[in-house]
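FW: tagging you since you asked about this chain on Friday. Here's the raw sequence from the shared folder, copied in full. Didn't touch anything.
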Amino acid sequence: MDFVIRPADPGEYDDLGEITAEAYLDDGLLAFDESDWYLGELRDVAKRAAAADVLAAVRDGALLGGVTFARSGGPMTDIAGPGEAEIRMLAVAPAARGQGVGEALVRACVERARATEGCVRVVLSTQRTMHTAHRIYTRLGFARAPERDWNPLPGRDDITLLAYELTL
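HL: got it, structure written out here
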């Protein structure tokens, strides 16, 4: 691995926000494209970092991607319950895809969860079309948890999010 995973530096927040927004836009993951309300959340890395851990993948000073690691009970969790941590907003820059960056970011979150006292499970939500991410989760031991599937926009069946979990 010729890159490192480390906490994102505040000076990188804007660039990491753009990488995240670009990844979601390029992959067609936003229901309303450029006008989607979630785009602002994806770009606001400072807000995420104030409530959770934001990790960055970096090679020779260049950002390759990032992820948010949220402990249960925090404002950045959607589905994590007591004793769980949640992975959010995993994104890899288009030029860095296929190099193991996404998997390394997920592994780093699992390691953080294992180091968190009382954490027994890691959970995440993903869209149906994120097939590459699904393969990473399955390869790392995550299992589908269909009873936890949910919809951030009720009434829009096309954006039901699939839940995965990993018991530590």
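FW: The mean pLDDT is 92.
HL: agreed, and Strands lie at 4-7, 53-59, 62-71, 84-92, 121-126, 143-144, 162-167.
FW: great, closing this out.
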